[in-house]
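Form P-L/3: holo structure prediction, ligand alpha-D-galactopyranose.
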Amino acid sequence: MISEHFESIFGTTPKIEGFTPGRVNLIGEHTDYNGGMVLPTALPLGISLAITPRTDSKIHIWSDKFDGIAIRNLSDKADDHWSDYIVGAAILAREQGYLDNGINIAAQTTLPFGAGISSSAAVTVGVLKLARDLAQDTTSDKDIAVMARRVENEYIGMPCGIMDQMAVAIARPGQALALDTETLAYELVDLPGDYHMAVIHSGQFRQLNEGRYKERKEECDAVKAALGHDNICQISDAEFALLKHLPDVLQRRARHCMTDHRRTVEAIDCLKRRDFLKLGQLMNESHVSMRDDFEITVPKVDQLVDDAVKLGALGARQTGGGFGGCIVACIANDKLETWKEALLSRHPESFWVS
Ligand code: GLA
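OUTPUT (holo model):
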C-alpha cells in the first residue's frame, strides 16, 4: 500500500493519495500533434502516489523503482533524472496555486518504463491531480491533462501531443477514449467484453527523448509548412496530391497521418457496431503504415506483430511512440491463454504486460 510506504519513509501519514492508470493506444499513432483522432484505453496497471506538502521549497521523492530518496528543489531545471516529471509537475502545481511549497512524495508503479504505455504521463497527471485536490480546486481533468502536456513540452523538452495525458486523466479500463486532438472533444466507447486488448512488451526498450520522436515531429512540421496549415490528419486526397513536390519521405509521413486518422475514425465506428474483424484489419493496416510510411517500427516488433496475427489475433500493431516498446493485439477471450503461451514461447525476450 502506498500510504504504508509513505509512512515508513517520511514518518507521517500522507495528506492525500491516489492512483493513475497507464494507457495503451488501440489505433491512431502520431496523429495527436497533427490534428487527428486517437483511441487509447486505460490499463489496470498504473502508478500510486502519496503526497504531503512541506514548508520549504524541497521535493523529497521516493519511488519503489529506484534506490534512495531524490532530494530536489522547486527551482530545479530538468536534469535527465527519473524524478524530473515529478519536479516539473510540482513546479507547475505551485505556479497554479495548488501548492504553497514543496512536497514529500512516494510513488509505487506497476508500469514498466520505456514501454510506450505512458508511465511519464501517469506520474505527471497524478501529481497535478493530487495537488489540485489538496487545494480543493475545481479545475477539470481535461485541463489537468493540458497542464501535464506543458510539463512534458516545456519542462522536460519532449514535444509530445496530448493523447497520453488525456488518456490517463480521463479513460477507464474497459472503455476507449475516442479523442479529437484538435478540439479535445471526446467520447468514451465500450470495449468488447468477449475480446481482450492484450499488451505485450517486445523486449526492445525505447526512450522517446532519444530524438527520433522529435525527428518525426520536425518532418511533420515541414509538411505543415508546405500545406500552409497544421492539420495533416484531416487533409483530403486532393490536398494530399498537392504534396507531390515534397521529398518522398515527407509524402509518406503525411500519408501515415492522413490514413491513420481515417482508420481511427473507422475503428471507433467498428467498436460501436461490434465489427471486431474489421477493427482487427484496421489495426494491422495501421502497423503497416507505421512500418513503411512513418518508419517507427523495428524488426523485432514487426515479427511479434506478424506472429500475434498468425497465431490467432484479429489484429495487432505496435502501440505508442514507436521504435520498440509494446504491441497491442485484439484476441478472443476463449483463445487468450493458448495464444499468449504460443506467442511468448516464440518470442522469449517479449513479456506479458496486461
Ligand atoms: C507518445 C507521445 C504521444 C503520441 C504517441 C504516438 O506516446 O507522448 O503524444 O504522439 O507517442 O502516437
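COMMENT: The two ends are 21 Å apart (CA to CA).
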